Amino acid sequence: ATPTSIMVGTGRAAELGVLFRKGDALQRLEATGIVAFDKTGTLTEGRPSLVRIVTAEGVDEAALLTRVASAEQGSEHPIARALEQAAEGPLVQPASVEAIAGHGLAAEVDGRRLLIGAARLMTREAIDIAPLAAAHDEVAKAGQTPVLVAEDGRIVAVFGIADAVKPGARAVVAALHEQGLRTALITGDTVATAQAIAAQLGIDHVEAEVLPEGKLDAVKRLRAAHGPVAFVGDGINDAPALAEAEVGIAIGTGTDIAIESADVVLRSGDPRGVVEALHLSRAVLRNIR
Ligand code: ADP
Ligand code: MG
């Protein structure tokens, strides 16, 4: 591409709120084989809420929720905000809290030892989830994130956390498929939850239960199978994958680190900007060939 046509193209993109931080991203975008999306905050609003509680026998639901929210007070995870909002009583100061990346957290609240997080946290801590396994699977199949809670070594509850899909998400996936591209979802969420969301949006391929440091490897796997990758993300966790992808596309409402690692920024946070960017790259490169 000539420098002038690239300047005109990136200028038009800017009017649409699509900011090309690097001019050669237009060429790399045109050659993309697959567009991979982060889930939370990218395809979903990133403002999850608690929609379902299933407890084991004899558990006081309100008191448990207060302890869980107390443990989550210091966490940055959106799930923590959903749990805090749902709690009714005043929260207490936990004696200790330990975040376990990609898994959840361990805390001591009111003299009880709590584990709060994904099923793999319970596996790691040798907690038997059998009494609530059916509820866990049901929550996940509904596209909600299941959060399990154990107290003093016993599984006591599963929470269903729902995060609404962004209005433009389905249309973006359909438009990318129409353009002959493949699509993928990369998330730390459990397989069943990720598959339910992918099915809802029409996404081809799912990389689930990806640990924070694993998104970069997921991009490499997708590249090996489908060619050059465009990765769309918003979080701190997404920065390495944004840098690794042929085209890193950051959601402008996301974290600064994600934006700094990206080649393209969608200023409005609307995922439809991905399609605008793609159209533009094709139009510009068609013009100059
Ligand atoms: P994601 O951004 O996809 O949620 P994370 O690596 O941050 O990925 O988290 C992966 C999973 O670990 C979450 O889906 C959740 O099940 C669990 N988890 C992480 N942090 C917390 C937390 N503070 N409270 C409860 N569960 C958590
Ligand atoms: Mg995210």
Automatic annotation (TrEMBL):
<comment type="similarity">
    <text>Belongs to the cation transport ATPase (P-type) (TC 3.A.3) family. Type IB subfamily.</text>
</comment>
<protein>
    <recommendedName>
        <fullName>P-type Cu(+) transporter</fullName>
    </recommendedName>
</protein>
